[in-house]
Write a structure and sequence with these properties.
Length: 171
């Protein structure tokens, strides 16, 4: 990972972006990371949970931390890439949550072009078409110079956490 470290003072910065098809859970993952890194407190999370209830999707409370426009919340689609800054004791992270919808590929390309590492969010309930889109996103990332790819397996509850199904879905 030394080749992708960038120094600003004493702390290194890693630039990441999420890639993958729409509805794979990219924004939810980013929101969950914000919460886990301590950048969102419980009262704020409860506020976003109430907003999610208004839109009829309580599970999206973490996604609403990064998908802020009414259109994004109503359609459950990221349109604009959202930049999130995360910090740990030893490193800072710039994380761009890119859109997965094919209509917004220009925004996705902008996110990818700024990344050192791409986080490919693979949903266990993806269709064959969505798997093809994942491959396209991975190729686009590589073409734009991103040489590190992390595969995040998401929505494992949709297949009852079956290891056999997860292995089949990730091949």
């Amino acid at each position: 990972m030394n080749s992708i470290n960038k120094s600003r003072g004493k702390q290194s910065i890693l630039n990441l972006c999420t890639i993958g098809p729409k509805s794979s859970g990219k924004s939810t993952l980013v929101g969950q990371l914000l919460f886990q890194f301590g950048h969102v407190d419980e009262p704020t999370l409860r506020k976003f949970e109430e907003i999610a209830k208004k839109f009829g999707d309580e599970k999206s409370k973490f996604a609403y931390l990064v998908d802020r426009t009414g259109y994004e919340r109503q359609t459950r689609r990221t349109v604009e890439s959202t930049l999130v800054q995360l910090k740990s004791p030893s490193r800072s992270y710039s994380l761009l949550d890119g859109p997965g919808d094919e209509k917004y590929v220009k925004h996705l390309l902008s996110s990818i072009s700024q990344a050192d590492v791409a986080l490919l969010v693979l949903s266990c309930d993806s269709t064959a078409e969505e798997y093809e889109q994942m491959k396209e996103h991975a190729v686009l990332s590589y073409t734009l110079g991103v040489q590190k790819l992390v595969i995040c397996v998401n929505k494992m509850d949709t297949i009852d956490y079956s290891e056999k199904k997860i292995q089949r879905n990730t091949q």
